[in-house]
Specification:
heterodimer, A: 596 residues, Glutamine Phosphoribosylpyrophosphate, subunit 1, domain 1, Rossmann fold, 7-stranded antiparallel sheet, 39% helix, B: 356 residues, alpha/beta
Chain lengths: 596, 356
Amino acid sequence: MCGVATLYNYHYASPAVDIPALGVLREELRHRGPDSQDVWVSDDSRIGLVHTRLSIIGPDERGRQPMTIDDQVVISFNGEIYNYESLRDRYLESSSLQSETDTEVVLRLYLLFGVDMLPMLDGMFSLLIWDARRDQLIAARDGYGVKPLYYLDNGWAFAASSEVRALESTGIELTLDPAGLVGFSIFGHVPEPFTSYREVRSLPPGTYITVGSLGASEPVEFADISSDLRRLDARDIAASENLREALLNSVRDHLVSDVPVSLFLSSGLDSAALLWAVKQLNRTEQLTALTLRFEEYENSLVDEAVIAGKIAEQSGVRHVPVTWSKADFLNHLPAMIAAMDMPTCDGLNTWMISRIAADHGFKVALSGIGGDELLGGYPAFRDVPRWKYQFGLLAHIPMLGRIAENLSGYLPAGLEKAPSLLRYADTTAGAYMVRRGIFMPHELKEFLPMELVREGMARLDPLGLMASKTVGFSSVESEVASLETQCYLRSQLLRDADWAGMSQGVEIRVPFAYPPLIQRAAPGIDLKGGKAENLLRAGIGLPREVTARSKTGFTLPMASWITSGNEHWSRTWVRQIVMKLLDDGSWKRELELELL
Amino acid sequence: MVKVLGLLSDGYGCSGGIAQYNRDLVSALSEIEGVSLYVQQIHGVEGVESVVPYEVSHSRITFAVAAFRNVISFRPDVILCGHINFVWLVSLANLFAKARVWLQIHGIDAFESPGAITFHNVGKVDLVTSVSRYTRRRFIEWSRLEPERVKVLPNTFDVALRPLTRNDLAEDLKSRYQGKKILLTVGRLDPREAYKGHDLVIEALPELIRKNRDLVYLVVGTGEDVHRLKRLAEDKGVSEFVEFAGYVAQDCINAYLSLADVFVMPSTLEGFGIVFLESMAAGTPVIALRGSGSDDACQDGSLGLLTTHESLVEDILSSLNTNPSKDLAQQVDEVFGVDRFKRHVRRLLSHLERAT
């Protein structure tokens, strides 16, 4: 996993690319690829590609990027292609290959098939390919959206990068996007395809764009996660065991590495299921399980390390629990905030466990991210159908919801969102927004200028954005699975895993967020049944301690550490960041001090 | 055969940057093999030499009627909408043709939403070409159109423009400005276009004259705003250093542009500023204010000097004291020359034909 970027001055009136700006881009992405950092510039200086490398597969010098073949095509690639060996064996002659990397396989497949090779790739990736034969740049991103790619086109120049903030260094004028601010205020993350800046967009997952002398094309879809998720509607109990085989295959694929692999092990079901698969594959000797525990939770019911230790011991895997105190957390908080790419209200836990992985010499870690979305693990799978049933009809009564929202100020802390059910619970998207939302739209004017809220809401259209993810599903539960996958997982968890992991030089792999797994397992999943039931019915062996307790995940004593008062910490956090952004455009400086 | 119907505001028989742009665009389209073109304009005069057949309507009503008539009789594949205010009309008339719509935006008219009807109809456009990145950005902000649909097609300039030596100039011009340093602005003096920056130059004159007594600020162009500017010059005590030359015909403009030592137009809201290109084509260095479409005309500072309010005086003085690049005309031709413009127009039409 690496950092990629490009500057392409495609317009005939545009001057050549600014070579020092490419150097700045490279430095901005250095943390993503500590092993090597390189820049390639075309002979006519119209385009430059940047690559910073975290070498995991084929880690020798032959894998350096940007990689070129006969100066015809050049690639800057971020991610992993898990089926690269089978693709290589099927389509390429081994003697023609100059390296052992998946990157070279991707580039040679491009030479053979052009963009038609994109659907062949199983894995997580974002890539930039310069095709000198066609004077065309290709930018593409994996179907799940595990790896990010942000881009802008100002009419003369195209720029893209693995991180939004790197694009600040291109010299292209960027302005705060009201849709990004409003989106962050409602959801705690900036929903794709919006970003912090009006000019910068996130490339939709499973799409590619071409950039030629007229600039960027509209995104063209090559993979559609929605159609994979629609298989959840099959509810074929006879197929429930598919999950077992699909998980084994996925974990096998995700263990492909030329460097040691670790596992983020909590006391939850997802990481335990991954560990079970590793054991089934007889790969426990190659793995180290890492667990983050907190000093004040030690030996309590929410101490992750107690149950994680037992699971690890039963599996025969090496286990490293690391204890953090409040002081450790506060010491590192400025670094965590500095590492954030866009405003977010999550990811601190991932930063900490990634730091532990890096401290123990790991570049690769498996994570259980994605399990809850696919297997019905979140409360939204229960709450959204119930709320639709209970409040859906009331939400049709004109003005009732708005009147109730106007009275929300009189409600005690923790119930601020409840009146919004009377306005939004008539649709799955609406009820889901209330479930996942941090602030409801009507609350935003309390800390954002009215004009900004109006423009942001019009551009973002949060209900429309979410409703577009529920088209074609036949049950509320599968609609929720789609929303959790295509909104929360994609714009929050995977994005946070990217910046938090990459800031430590750690590639976080997510075997549950893997299209081949969904395609195989989805028909047999019963979303109403919940995660534990789905895993057990599939024959995935889980220790009794894990199934017996409710899911805790990586619980943080966040509330008491960074905020005080009755308000939920995430509301305080979001409001502080937004107000800082409006103040001076820089939300990071001294944020942590104000929170404290 | 691709049939293109152009609905333009200005074109043949009109003066100004938009008219020049439209003529260049029509000319480029007419040279594409297999393209049949017909143009209707709301301004201008009939009977002017043109590369395509055209008609002039003179009033909004006759223009609208002509649009329907032409759409029905000509059955265009592409409608080139030459002004954002015509978008509603194009949408309506296009009900009879189902043609692809190409909207051209120029500057200030496209900076802010002209109203709900235009907003709605802009969403139906297949391709927008903007004269500059700045106009494009302002347009995208309010229109919410996918940025990929909005491309940039900058101005080009008259190939006849060239650097002239003092010997090439008419005697009266030569003798009148003998021994003078000439600062020039060319542009309409319309009160609605007071953003062009004549005021800024006049306000800077006292300090400029203190450093250079031989300076003359030559203002070419006509309009109602001339009275205000004359008063401003009087108030600043510099009226003897400002000459309002009035209207100068296009075939004489080369002489004025070449005569000047520096062309300056510190416009704050310029859509592009074709006069910057014309001035450079005539061999005269240009100064523009950073932050509008002028950035494009100056190629971000590579061709022309981009200044700020604070640095205007200093930059004018330093430009007056610097020998201009002998290659300036060639450089501006290499960047904004008509051949590149035509190639780009060809690509745009081909892109529009492929668009779904």
